[in-house]
Task: structure prediction
Amino acid sequence: MNSIINIKKLTFRYLDKFVFDKFSLDIEEGSFVTITGPNGSGKSTLLKILTGLVKTEADITICGLELNKENIYDIRKNIGVIFDNLDNTFISETIEDDLAFTLQNLCYTKEEMKDRIEKISTLLGIKNILNSRPNELSGGEKCKVALACAIIHNPKILILDEALSMIDENDKNNILKILKKLNKKGMTIINVVHDLKESYYSERLLVLSDGVIVLDGSPLKVMEYDKILNKLGISIPFEIELSLK
Ligand code: ADP
Result:
């Protein structure tokens, strides 16, 4: 297995509260992984650690680079992130300006910027809204723009922190299909979710509880452990519950 993220013996605490104690995780390059768990289980902290937003002394390798102060800029170039509050994506007057701003920060030339914006807006079907203002967009469109900003620099890893939780079922499925396409082209995707239906598009589902991976396997296999999931307060999709019965 060629791992793109490798965490060994991660111990992390906020003041006196331990979130992880000797936590290990390996994510295969090109995989599509869903992570779930009750509130407070450590999902956001894990993402913050991977993106260098909180510091640790752990032995973590991302895209072949050791996660440390020297490498964090290069590591961040390999990661795209979408957070749950999609409105935070927008800082410019129009969508096109927002995309350009993301590229400007990464020192792209004007020519390269034009080319990348053309390519990404064609791929995600957002050419028609490039000149729109953020407040004119629907939830699904906002999510597509957030996705465009996250992947416009062609990262190897895309992380979604409950980014699809606020959009309707139809838009959610459309975005998940796009994510699957990106994954088939080689992008590693990590989707943190509450709704286990989102895991149908991934090949691996991890369940976190109190900083420990309690279940890890294919989504259907993991969902067979309905008693454990129910105990953690994680709902199983209705159709899975029916088929288990
Ligand atoms: P999740 O994303 O699964 O809800 P978090 O990573 O946000 O979990 O939280 C893990 C634990 O760390 C929780 O007990 C939470 O209360 C605690 N925690 C999170 N952020 C902070 C912080 N900034 N300061 C202190 N404790 C925190």
Notes: The pocket of adenosine-5'-diphosphate is lined by residues 14, 17, 19, 37, 39-45 (CB under 6 Å). The beta strands are 3-14, 17-28, 32-36, 59-62, 65-66, 79-82, 157-161, 188-192, 204-209, 212-217. Residues 169-184 form the longest helix (16 residues).
